[in-house]
Fold this sequence. Notes:
By secondary structure, chain A is of the alpha/beta class. Chain A is 33% helix and 24% strand.
Amino acid sequence: MGVSEQPFYVTRGDERIPGILWTPEESVSALPLVILGHGGKSEKRNTASLAMARRFVRRHGMAACAIDAIDHGERGSIVDTGDGPAQPEYIDLWKRSDTFDRMNADWKATLDALLASDRFDPRRVGYWGLSMGTVLGLPFVASEPRVSAAVLGACGLTGPSVIRGRFAERHRADAPRVTCPVLFIVQWDDEIFDRDGALELFDAIGSRDKRMHVHPGKHGAVPLEAVDAMREFLAAQLGGKP
Amino acid sequence: MGVSEQPFYVTRGDERIPGILWTPEESVSALPLVILGHGGKSEKRNTASLAMARRFVRRHGMAACAIDAIDHGERGSIVDTGDGPAQPEYIDLWKRSDTFDRMNADWKATLDALLASDRFDPRRVGYWGLSMGTVLGLPFVASEPRVSAAVLGACGLTGPSVIRGRFAERHRADAPRVTCPVLFIVQWDDEIFDRDGALELFDAIGSRDKRMHVHPGKHGAVPLEAVDAMREFLAAQLGGKP
Lengths: 242, 242
């Protein structure tokens, strides 16, 4: 199945939110839609998101979309600095008190705009995002009742991450408000979010229908088996083709 | 696909070990074989094992076998006493110093006898057992190089179980000797084996290729999703039909 990739911009007050929509080329109506949240210092069209989006389209006949997070991609200067120190812009992002609420509003505006097209089924919207995709995505999933299934993980309430500062408190408050079916992914040897904090976050998620898959390996080494499980979970929950 | 169910007995010194073998009716040679270890106060043909065995045959074209554990089923008087106190025979089983080594030898003798028939592929032998199926099965998997994939879980190094007494020490020693691919199942609200002890046991397993699936619920409430994952894991590892 061919994959159509279409850039879009959503305007919300002064914000111009850049996004990408992936759909089947021979698109039918009322498609399931997965929102892909990217990791820290990355952007909407990173390799992992692109591969995931294409697989949702090709294998399951679903649609996927992604936007740049605040100060990432087309919206700023944050980039991956490898082993070097984090950029001041990145550290600053986690010091500002409005980061979570702005991001929630960005995703909500994006979802409003896409659903207004009548191409997607509003009862079959999912969210996928690990690491910063959970740091920012968990509050969004907690706040957005139209998200009916979510994949979260590679994140926790404690650990040495520079972005940990202000969000543990927010996550403790928001995790019980996540009530949709959740698959939570843990990297057992994560050097950025520690094990106990990851388990504590899974525990705090309010959904009765939740499960956690744990794999050995560091933060960035999520295995193909987990990638497949995440995709198949959302396809099953949202009624994509098996 | 029709399922053939055949009782058998294996003799090992003074022991007469009762077992059941499940195979496809139109059996070919060199079948993958899964050894099913039953839970405490149960027996070889319990509902869960029977359903699992039939699914291995019907869905994957594989064979399965089970034997009664020491003092269980045809080999003794231990039965499920529900909410009542455990039988003295059951408590005694965990006080005896030879329980693990006897059970290892029983399974080894069973495997020797079955493989001698040339109906099974000795490179495609798996083990499945939760709860007491892990209490006894983990030392067996650690000791038996012919087991090339295992499903373990609903078990841990600590907790209020009456059978905990002597086996934590044995499990601490044997877990690092388990080196085959493992799927480890945890019930997040297990009232018999506590959470920390379950995570500790997963951590101690020596296999580099291991993963843990965690589901909310009590000890006995393993969900269908986990049952499917266990079966599909062994089928994939042992080359059954997908």
